[in-house]
Amino acid sequence: MKQVVLYTRERCSLCEKAKAVILAVRREVEFDFREVDIGWSGDLYEDYKHAIPVIEVDGKRAFKYRVEISELKERLSR
Fold first, then answer.
1. Interatomic CA distance for residues 49 and 45, integer angstroms
2. Closest-CA residue to 64 (of 78, 48, 77)
3. Which helix (H) or strand (E) holds 53?
4. Residue 67: which H helix or E strand, with range?
5. Which residues contact 43 (CB under 8 A, 6 or more apart)?
6. Neighbours of 3 (CB within 10 A)
7. Which is nearest to 15 in space by CA: 43, 44, 51, 42?
8. How far, in Å, CA of 64 to CA of 67, rounded?
9. What are 3's strand-pairing partners?
10. Going by C-beta distance under 8 Å and a sequence separation of 6 or more, which residues neighbour residue 4?
11. Are the C-beta atoms of residues 22 and 52 closer than 8 Å to each other?
């Protein structure tokens, strides 16, 4: 089964939009979904602070900042 990870942070409007897309696709395509909050400090924060949201599919970066339903569906079908 495919795995999707969303790197996010609270008060991130782009993250909320990306999550909505992921959840919409999840109604049609089965995959595991996990959110990772990068917080406001630490290694994850330093790695992602200027790049969120980041969406990984099966451990590989697939999208940064924005994702469309059709693009995510296509990526999950590979």
1. 5
2. 48
3. none
4. none
5. none
6. 12
7. 51
8. 7
9. 32
10. 22, 31, 32, 33, 34, 55, 56, 57, 72, 76
11. no
HSE toward the beta carbon, residue 26, CA cutoff 13 A: 15
β-pairing, 54-57 vs 60-64, is antiparallel
Two structure tokens written together for 23: 């959840």
Question: Which token pair is 14?
Answer: 């782009």
End-to-end CA gap in the chain: 12
pLDDT digits (tens, 9 = 90+) for 10-63: 999 999 999 999 999 999 999 999 999 999 999 999 999 999 999 999 999 999
pTM: 0.94
Q: Phi, psi at residue 56, to the nearest 5°? A: -105, 145
Reported as half-sphere exposure (CB side, CA atoms, 13 A), residue 59 has a value of: 1
